[in-house]
Design brief:
alpha+beta; five-stranded mixed β-sheet
Length: 488
Amino acid sequence: MRIRLGCTVRLVRHLMHLKARTNGTAVFKPQRTFERLYQASLSRVQKRFVRNDLADRAYELFVEMAMQRRGGLSAPAHLGFLARQGSWDECHSDETCLVCIAQRPSIHLTCGHRLCRPCAIACSGPGSYQVPRCPLCRTRNTRCTGIRPPTASARMLKLGGSVRGKTVVQFLKELGRHMGLAHYPVEKHFDIVVGSDIGMSHWRPTTHAANQVGAYFVQTIFLEDWSLADCAYHIPRLADPKLDSKRSVVSFGKGLEWDLTTIKHFNTPEATLVVQNRVFYNADQPSSATHELESTDIAVRCQGTWSSDPQSAAHHLFASLFYIELMDLPKFYAARERARVHLHCRVPPGPALLELVSGLYRSRAQVYYRADDSNHVSDLLVTSAALARCRTGERFARAFEIQVGSMASSIDVRIDGLGGPEYISNCPYELQKLVQDQGLDCVFGRKDHRDLERAEMSSFAMFEAIDWLSRALEGVIGLWATRLSAEP
């Protein structure tokens, strides 16, 4: 594909401003910014061209654009420029993200284009990590990006060891039954899955095909979206897994063959398959088959005698669907400061979320929160205002304030889950780490150009306050009515 020189110059200009003006950073003089970030690099590039005014021309264009967009956001302007070009349909790269031309892509879209993680987040909607349309060709994207919110816990499932196929099916069925979410299948509850055809604890090959099912289940259920019934149907016909001469195509029997190199085309979950000591993965690096529990918030195992209890695992997974984010950075002008916190849910808007929050609303489930050793404050987990927003297709959000003493304070949030109060994702959460994970300490802006979405958060908080006042008034009116009826 050939791109016009004039288009290339404008593209480079937009890319320079995109890098120099991330969301949330202070506005510096464009002249000094260009000299600091680009002057040396363009001078080296200029030596390869006949024209000797490349750096000077780029300087003029950069300063002109910076002055035009002073105080504005660079990411929306850059994405708009890309969409107007209309010349990206046949331009693809597996090595470079074509949005920023700076990072290696890892997110696959329906149209075939690939984005890096920061660009995928920048292209997603407010409060979402799903890319609705390709920023290059504007094709509607139906593939899940699989991006985990930065303050949500990592949930791992390990399949392997001396475990039979029917045991895995029964384990996953029990796990789903205890979760009790008909519209949210069990495979959606994991961010990382590891499947192996060998014993994960001792790395010794097993001798029976029915025991070598870890990679089979990861490939079928978590990557190919097979149902448990489909997987169970093929288990009696499973043969010893064999790799072809190129050691890339695995066969579990007739009609059960997969090219494992295509695993990189799947965004979610982060999968690692180990077949005959050959490792295949779709992340930047493989998750170890002997991954330790402390490296993830939740690790569920189906590994024979090392298997987790399905009921206990379901309780932890249910609570981990919820995570917290700060609405802004605490200032600590006083000895104790109010940390404004939002509670979110990882289930996207739709029937599954409505099923979840409706059940919690009917059971009047509580949320308990505090900082350090103070007393827990309890309130309704799902208010009528939060339920109403979910019914209109919005994501779940619950706002509250916690008194904290310093950045070293730990925020403790629990919810009434399936078996009583359970810690939500990453809780207790040290405030300093929460700030770092959320990117609120990025002085020069975040790479994904995300803002705090203060306007959206303020509206959520306003609706929560209105809902709280309504419930308080209902209580007062009910008390008066009781007293009036008791009077002679």
